[in-house]
């Protein structure tokens, strides 16, 4: 059972997300928070596998809460819930160590898949969010794509396959099943790629994969 903590200051949003997650018998919402401070306190208490965190919340916003969650519950994956008006926040959060970004208005199946992916050690990056983040980061698109492809050139074919599957939202185990290897092999590949490319986390790697064209646009 995947334990989820849901943090959003809007009661109706929390109710909607909770209802979506309830359709998956393998996911349980163990607590809800209305602001960042409450989210951190409840995460310490319940030790969830995943925290779904709204970016804009009172008292402590999602970016601040994400930083505190990393220190308080380092084994808990954090996924930011965002809207189309928050591109700048998403770009700022890229280096914060979060495990993913999902649109509040996205496909419900994308939400469930994202929760499962990060709980399994993967990254959750909505294709729409990925495209908008890349645009927000600035620079001419074809130039960025060329640079991204150049950065990925040193990777082996196997490593590129792992990166593409991770960016597509698959968990470590799902990637392992697809490639007919054990999960530990996938983790080793990802760790090696992050170190070689000088990236801090899997979400940064997923964005790079989108820039290089390893994953189709939304």
Automatic annotation (TrEMBL):
Organism superkingdom: Bacteria
InterPro entries: CheY-like_superfamily, NreC/VraR/RcsB-like_REC, Sig_transdc_resp-reg_C-effctor, Sig_transdc_resp-reg_receiver, Tscrpt_reg_LuxR_C, WalR-like
CDD domains from the UniProt entry: LuxR_C_like, REC_NarL-like
Residues that bear 4-aspartylphosphate: 54
Coiled coil region boundaries: none
Record-annotated HTH luxR-type domain positions: 148-213
Family matches, as Pfam families: GerE (PF00196), Response_reg (PF00072)
The Response regulatory domain, residue ranges: 3-119
One GO term (biological process): phosphorelay signal transduction system
Keywords linked to the UniProt accession: DNA-binding, Phosphoprotein, Transcription, Transcription regulation
PROSITE patterns documented for this protein: HTH_LUXR_1, HTH_LUXR_2, RESPONSE_REGULATORY
GO molecular function terms listed in the Swiss-Prot or TrEMBL record: DNA binding
Protein name: DNA-binding response regulator, LuxR family
Species of the source: Streptomyces venezuelae (strain ATCC 10712 / CBS 650.69 / DSM 40230 / JCM 4526 / NBRC 13096 / PD 04745)
Lineage: Bacteria, Bacillati, Actinomycetota, Actinomycetes, Kitasatosporales
């Amino acid at each position: 059972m995947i334990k989820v903590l849901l943090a959003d200051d809007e009661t109706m949003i929390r109710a909607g997300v909770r209802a979506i997650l309830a359709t998956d018998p393998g996911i349980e919402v163990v607590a809800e928070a209305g602001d960042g401070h409450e989210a951190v306190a409840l995460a310490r208490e319940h030790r969830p596998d995943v925290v779904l965190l709204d970016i804009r919340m009172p008292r402590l916003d999602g970016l601040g809460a994400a930083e505190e969650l990393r220190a308080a519950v380092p084994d808990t994956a954090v996924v930011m819930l965002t809207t189309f008006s928050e591109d700048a926040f998403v770009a700022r959060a890229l280096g914060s160590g979060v495990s993913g970004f999902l649109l509040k208005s996205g496909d419900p199946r994308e939400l469930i898949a994202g929760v499962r992916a990060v709980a399994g050690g993967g990254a959750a990056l909505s294709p729409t969010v990925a495209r908008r983040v890349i645009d927000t980061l600035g620079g001419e698109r074809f130039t960025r794509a060329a640079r991204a492809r150049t950065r990925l050139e040193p990777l082996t074919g196997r490593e590129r396959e792992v990166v593409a599957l991770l960016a597509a939202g698959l968990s470590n185990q799902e990637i392992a099943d697809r490639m007919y290897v054990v999960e530990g092999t996938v983790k080793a590949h990802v760790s090696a790629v992050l170190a070689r490319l000088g990236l801090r986390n899997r979400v940064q790697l997923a964005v790079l994969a989108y820039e290089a064209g390893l994953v189709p646009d939304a």
